[in-house]
Specification:
alpha/beta, 10 helices, globular, binds adenosine-5'-triphosphate, binds magnesium ion
Length: about 250
């Protein structure tokens, strides 16, 4: 069985010398939601940028449904959908025109308008929003539309960069239900977040990233009982204490 997302010894050093991802190793299976926590600058977004082929890795590999993003970029990209705050949307188009455009590009082919309206409704965009230009959308509405586009792309893997950051409380709850549906459909979900409590609610596994390294992974049975906030703070404090380049001591909480 192919694994939707496999990151193997990934390294990303930017041209300015910043080591943003440092020997990252992880995989996400079908029907799994993996949430990645980490302080600002930990390397979460960089991991996504490399995974999407937006910037090349300095070492290691990323595979999406078995396809190497560097060697087989077209095949790899066909199996992944990306949702971020800055989703590539066409401001002059309405929500419906945007989703129709992406549906025409999708490998599974053009969908009927009725089906597209249904997907927009599913992510909580009301009927009047369907015919409004996206330029006037709030951040949360843009995120909802981004998720709708991810759904119609029918990807094995959905990558999300802080997807709940722009959502109002109701939007946040709707979004969690939507993620659960996507999991039930068999998709693999990888999301970055600063929201420890949402991560705890939704994730099958939670990773903590510090300075480009995955320093801890909490498995499903641990998530329920662990004091996630305390564990997270421990790693961030370690980082502050050891400012200067040394690795945090991760032995205490293993
Ligand atoms: N295009 C770039 N060129 C050079 N350095 C970069 C670039 N993008 C990010 N960085 C650096 O790489 C490191 C990791 O940044 P990244 O955006 O991946 O962190 P993040 O975990 O997503 O943080 P946040 O929680 O703030 O979104 C930071 O030190 C950042 O300054
Ligand atoms: Mg980021």
């Amino acid at each position: 069985m192919t694994v939707p997302y496999e990151i193997d010894h990934l390294v990303k050093r930017y041209d300015n010398g910043v080591l943003a991802v440092d020997d990252l190793h992880l995989s996400v299976q079908k029907q799994e939601i993996f949430c990645m926590l980490g302080a600002n600058g930990a390397g979460k977004t960089t991991t996504l940028m490399v995974s999407l082929g937006f910037t090349p890795p300095s070492g290691g590999t990323v595979r999406i449904s078995g396809y190497d993003i560097t060697r087989e970029p077209l095949e790899a990209k066909a199996h992944v959908a990306y949702v971020s705050e800055n989703v590539q949307l066409y401001g002059n188009f309405t929500a419906m025109q945007n989703i129709r455009f992406f549906s025409e590009l999708s490998s599974r082919g053009k969908m009927e308008d009725a089906a597209l309206h249904e997907v927009l409704a599913r992510v909580g965009l009301g009927a009047d929003a369907h015919k409004r230009r996206v330029r006037g959308f709030s951040k949360g509405m843009r995120q909802r539309l981004g998720i709708a586009i991810a759904i119609i792309r029918d990807a094995d893997l959905i990558l999300l960069d802080e997807p709940t950051s722009g959502l109002d409380p109701k939007g946040g709850l709707d979004f969690m239900n939507l993620l659960q549906e996507l999991r039930r459909e068999g998709r693999a979900v990888f999301m970055t977040t600063h929201d420890i409590f949402r991560a705890r609610e939704i994730a099958d596994r939670i990773g903590i990233m510090v300075r480009g390294k995955l320093v801890r992974v909490l498995e499903t049975d641990e998530i329920e009982h662990a004091d996630l906030a305390a564990i997270y703070t421990h790693y961030i404090d370690q980082m502050a204490i050891q400012e200067g380049g040394a690795r945090p001591d991760t032995t205490a909480l293993q």
